[in-house]
Specification:
Helices cover about 40% and strands about 25% of the residues. The chain is of the alpha+beta class. A hairpin with a 2-residue loop joins strand 6 (about 175-180) and strand 7 (about 180-185).
Length: about 260
């Protein structure tokens, strides 16, 4: 159903369509941001080509993911803009870096309904394993945060920075009962929790995202191969298995969870 390949400049038009669709609220409320995206993607593809994949279905690009090798550790994080040089990766991409920073993971809704995002994650994870990277680092949006603040009548405008931080941390840990299970309330945080990622810290000004009130949760995934076994034959074998598992959502969640 899906196939993956590395991104190239000919994909930019379709990547823009996905970007503007997935972050529709951001671009509606901050329309000037649209002008920056095309040039940012051109620079990103040029720099990260071997770490940037697109998801295709019937010849149509339905998603994409970008990894950035780095020596940055989770405790070094300040913001997405700082980590990626505003998404261009200029001066931030180090092929021999020991970790991988995930710049983006975006897919059309019709692709996510069929698990296409797992295949993209598997491609990046497989390469990270093959190259014996230690960690995969990224920050998750909290797309339900602003709506929750409004629905619960939280006094956002009257809160100082510390009060807003506490409220963001409260929301990040908020749970709900779904199908008889207690799970995280925010759908995106729930997705990454199901994917086996560790939540490190809630950050203010993690990136510019109006739905998240610019807050994000720093997440980390660890190489499943023990350090003592990270030899070429083992890395290649586990990497190949990881790519195959990515085609099955339930297997993927079980493997990384």
């Amino acid at each position: 159903m899906f196939k993956t390949r590395h991104a190239d400049e000919n994909d930019i038009e379709q990547l823009l369509e996905i970007e503007f669709d997935r972050y529709k609220t951001l671009y509606e409320e901050l329309p000037h941001k649209r002008r920056e995206v095309e040039e940012r993607f051109r620079k990103r593809i040029k720099i990260a080509r071997s770490w940037m994949w697109v998801l295709e279905q019937d010849g149509k690009v339905t998603g994409f993911i970008t990894g950035q090798p780095t020596n940055q550790e989770p405790e070094d994080f300040e913001s997405w803009e700082q980590s990626t040089n505003n998404g261009t990766l200029e001066g931030k991409f180090f092929p021999e870096g020991k970790n991988v920073y995930v710049v983006n993971l975006d897919a059309r809704r019709e692709a996510t309904k069929k698990g296409g995002q797992y295949l993209l994650m598997a491609m990046l994870g497989a390469k990270a394993i093959r190259q014996a990277k230690e960690k995969v680092i990224f920050e998750s949006r909290m797309p339900g945060f602003r709506d929750w603040v409004k629905e619960e009548n939280k006094p956002w405008d009257k809160l100082n920075n510390q009060g807003r931080q506490r409220l963001a941390e409260e929301y990040a840990s908020l749970t709900a009962m779904i199908n008889g299970r207690e799970v995280l309330h925010d759908r995106l945080l729930r997705f990454y929790e199901n994917g086996g990622f560790t939540f490190v810290k809630v950050y203010a000004n993690a990136f510019e995202d109006v739905e998240s009130l610019n807050f994000g949760v720093l997440c980390v995934g660890y190489n499943p191969v023990p350090k003592s076994l990270r030899l070429a034959p083992v890395n290649i074998l586990v990497s190949a298995a990881f790519r195959l598992i990515g085609k099955n959502q339930k297997l993927f969640e079980k493997f990384v969870g």
